[in-house]
Amino acid sequence: MSLQTTIANFVCLDKSVVFAPSVPQENYGTEDPRVVYRQKTGQYFLMYTAVQQLANGSLIVQLAEAVTKSPGNKSSWERIGALFPVRTR
Fold first, then answer.
1. pLDDT averaged over consecutive 10-residue blocks of the chain (89 residues)?
2. Distance (Å, rounded) from C-alpha 3 to C-alpha 11?
3. Beta strands 78-82 and 59-68, pairing class
4. Parallel, antiparallel, or unpaired for β 59-68 and 29-38?
5. For residue 64, what are the β-bridge partners?
């Protein structure tokens, strides 16, 4: 996922990756980022899709969250993890 910032009416896209898969629950990738800034705390909240591939080839897809005060710093993201538990049949 790349960081995109809007300045006035111009959009600047930083092509460096600031959030990449790093835990087993994301071994197949991270997708569909949505970022919300909370001015009161100065925090950026990232909601994203975490995709995990199991040994049998099946996928677990979960909505997950991460938070930071420095979104351009790759190491600053604190993963909260999946927002809902995995349900099995």
1. 49 68 94 94 96 94 96 91 84
2. 11
3. antiparallel
4. unpaired
5. 48, 82
Question: In this predicted structure, what is the pLDDT of residue 1?
Answer: 47
Q: Residues with Cβ < 8 Å from 81, sequence gap 6 or more?
A: 25, 64, 65
φ, ψ of residue 49 in degrees (nearest 5): -95, 125
Q: Which residues contact 38 (CB under 8 A, 6 or more apart)?
A: 44, 45
Asked if 53 and 21 touch (Cβ cutoff 8 Å), the reply is no
Domain ranges of the chain: 21-82
pLDDT of residue 86: 83
Q: Which pLDDT score is estimated for 2?
A: 47
Distances in Å between the Cα of 9 and the Cα atoms of 3, 5, 6, 12, 51 are 17, 10, 7, 10, 34
